[in-house]
Amino acid sequence: MDLNLIIFGILFLVLGYLIGVKKQTWLLSGFNEKRVKNKKKLAHLVGGTLVFLSILLIIGGIIGWLTPEYIMIFVVAVMLGLIFYVNIMLVE
């Protein structure tokens, strides 16, 4: 059991809830409301991705089926993909 992954998973879960459900987009670094085409879609997409990654981190931390390095590489890759997608499709 890896406590660090579980802690990061809980943090991502809280952020995913605040951003995706409560639409607290001010938590996003560099968020400029004037440049975003669809604020609701942005909040839903980022929040959903964070919740997905949080579940992966928590399960990976409890079960320990992969090493934390592989899980974090996947998390970083997904986050980078999300950043590129948001900047290309949702920002003017």
From TrEMBL:
Transmembrane segments: 6-21, 42-65, 71-91
Pfam families: DUF3784
Top-level division of the source organism's lineage: Bacteria
Keyword annotations: Membrane, Transmembrane, Transmembrane helix
UniProt-recorded name of the protein: DUF3784 domain-containing protein
Taxonomic source organism: Priestia veravalensis
